[in-house]
């Protein structure tokens, strides 16, 4: 059997194993595809090869520039509260960062549709300009509204276009190894989440806030130049008219609906430590310098969470891996982060930062693979991912301000002033794990964990 036949046979087996037995009406799906076909594949995804891995590397650069930037929001929350905007409350400042999270995820349906029609090049090109321009404008900002427009809106839209363009492009090159490919690409976010906070902390007191932001923007511009030259979609894209039902139709499938709800609740809580880990560390008695290093520690640990659990998921079940990882994150919050301030040592807080990076990184990396798992037609991956990210966008928009309000409510409680925030964080992550489990069950049934390859590969 030659290589083309092997790829065709392997892809057919992969699609057959992923098709939910009761969630898709085949006749209706065929009719819909014949009316709305806009993408034609060049053949089965290669699942490897120099060109495919070059796209993954370009995606790595995009993740560092977009999600790695987003993963650094904790240092901005701290700096804005203590230095740049000291007259504003924690909750008010959190809106700058939460709107950025909202736009990054909320742009997904639009970006997904652009990708389905035109591919990734237009998204990444326009996104690079807006993202870099927005960061440059942050360097000139001194007022709240200026930071909001530059960081939340301009940079947020640009980062969203970069992120979704890269995620969708990488997904088209892989099927059986999609979890590994997306995990490797998303590891760029972990590296960015380490480099950018340390770079900011080291430079802001020597060259000032403005030149620090410009230095970061030049670094990201270099990475995006590599991405512009390397990231391409594997399929051929043909424009088609926009149909609003394309975004709503997936929610008729129960596995997709439960997955979207699970991702919402998980996202509602799982990003909170990004903003408040450093502040809560200082409240627990850590020195300001050590507290700021909690974010790089968390992001550094998330590198392992982004790469290894998705790879394990390719072999033992992506939903299985996600459910266990998210549950582990909730346990860490409720059992370790909440009582950490009661300890006379800073060790519990540092250990929490290191361990929490694993479920955080896993969820961020495996989310696109979960959507791909319950998607039978790669030609709709952009829209289906976009709809899921749009749901999680509302969690990102409201989660941080709610957390800020909960911090204010706990003011005056001494070491436990962040307890309401931490309870909210842990409970919502637990709810997310429950709905992810419901998605798995509605798609494949309970099954046997020993039969995981049959169910979830």
Question: What's the arrangement of secondary structure elements?
Answer:
Elements: H1 3-18, H2 26-36, E1 39-40, H3 50-70, H4 73-84, H5 90-106, H6 108-118, H7 121-138, H8 144-172, H9 178-204, H10 208-230, E2 236-237, H11 245-248, H12 254-270, H13 272-283, H14 288-292, H15 294-316, H16 318-337, H17 347-373, H18 381-409, H19 419-444, H20 452-456
Antiparallel strand pairs: 1-2
Core attributes:
457 residues, mainly alpha, single chain, 20 helices, two-stranded antiparallel ribbon, disordered N terminus
How does this model look, in words?
With 457 residues, this protein is mostly helical. It is built from 20 helices and two strands. It has helices at 3-18, 26-36, 50-70, 73-84, 90-106, 108-118, 121-138, 144-172, 178-204, 208-230, 245-248, 254-270, 272-283, 288-292, 294-316, 318-337, 347-373, 381-409, 419-444, 452-456; strands at residues 39-40, 236-237. The chain has a two-stranded antiparallel sheet with strand order 1-2. Helix 5 (90-106) packs antiparallel against helix 18 (381-409) and helix 9 packs antiparallel against helix 10. The radius of gyration is 21 Å and the shape is globular. Residues 1-40 and 449-457 have low confidence and may be disordered.
Mean pLDDT: 83
* Strand residues, percent: under 5%
Q: What gross morphology would you assign?
A: globular
Number of helices: 20
Structural class: mainly alpha
Q: H/E order of the elements?
A: HHEHHHHHHHHEHHHHHHHHHH
Radius of gyration: 21 Å
Poorly predicted segments: 1-40, 449-457
Major sheet details: 2 strands, antiparallel
Distance between the termini: 23 Å
- Please count the beta strands (DSSP E, at least 2 residues each): 2
């Amino acid at each position: 059997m030659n290589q083309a036949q092997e790829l065709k046979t392997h892809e057919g087996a992969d699609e057959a194993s992923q098709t939910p037995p009761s969630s898709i009406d085949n006749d209706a799906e065929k009719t819909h595809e014949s009316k709305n076909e806009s993408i034609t594949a060049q053949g089965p995804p290669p699942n490897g090869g120099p060109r495919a891995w070059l796209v993954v590397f370009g995606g790595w650069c995009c993740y560092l520039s977009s999600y790695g930037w987003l993963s650094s929001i904790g240092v901005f929350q701290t700096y804005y509260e203590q230095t740049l905007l000291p007259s504003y409350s924690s909750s008010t400042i959190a809106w700058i960062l939460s709107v950025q999270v909202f736009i990054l995820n909320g742009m997904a349906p639009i970006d997904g549709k652009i990708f389905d029609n035109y591919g990734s090049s237009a998204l990444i090109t326009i996104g690079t300009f807006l993202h870099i321009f927005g960061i440059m404008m942050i360097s000139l900002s001194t007022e709240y509204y200026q930071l909001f427009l530059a960081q939340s809106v301009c940079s947020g839209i640009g980062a969203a276009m970069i992120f979704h363009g890269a995620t969708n492009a990488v997904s088209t090159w892989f099927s059986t190894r999609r979890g590994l490919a997306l995990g490797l690409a998303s590891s760029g976010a972990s590296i960015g989440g380490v480099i950018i906070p340390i770079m900011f902390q080291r430079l802001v007191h020597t060259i000032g806030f403005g030149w620090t932001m410009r230095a970061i923007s030049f670094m990201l511009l270099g990475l995006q130049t590599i991405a512009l030259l390397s990231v391409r979609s594997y399929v051929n894209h043909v424009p088609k008219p926009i149909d609003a039902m394309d975004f709503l139709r997936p929610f008729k499938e129960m596995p997709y609906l439960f997955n979207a709800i699970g991702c919402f609740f998980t996202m509602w809580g799982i990003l909170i430590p990004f903003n408040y880990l450093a502040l809560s560390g200082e409240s627990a008695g850590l020195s300001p310098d050590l507290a700021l290093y909690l974010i790089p520690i968390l992001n550094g640990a998330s590198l392992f969470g982004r790469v290894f659990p998705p790879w394990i998921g390719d072999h033992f079940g992506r939903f299985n891996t996600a459910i266990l990882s998210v549950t582990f994150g909730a346990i860490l919050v409720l059992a370790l982060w909440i009582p950490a301030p009661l300890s006379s040592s800073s060790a519990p807080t540092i250990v929490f930062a290191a361990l929490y990076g694993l479920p955080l990184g896993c969820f961020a990396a495996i989310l696109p693979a979960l959507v791909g798992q319950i998607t039978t037609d790669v030609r709709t991956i952009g829209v289906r991912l976009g709809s899921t990210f749009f749901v999680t966008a509302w969690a990102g928009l409201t989660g941080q301000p709610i957390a800020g309000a909960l911090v204010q409510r706990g003011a005056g409680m001494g070491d436990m002033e962040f307890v309401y925030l931490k309870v909210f964080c842990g409970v919502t992550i637990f709810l997310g794990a429950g709905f992810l489990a419901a998605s798995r069950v509605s798609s494949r049934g309970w099954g046997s964990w020993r039969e995981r390859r049959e169910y979830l590969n």
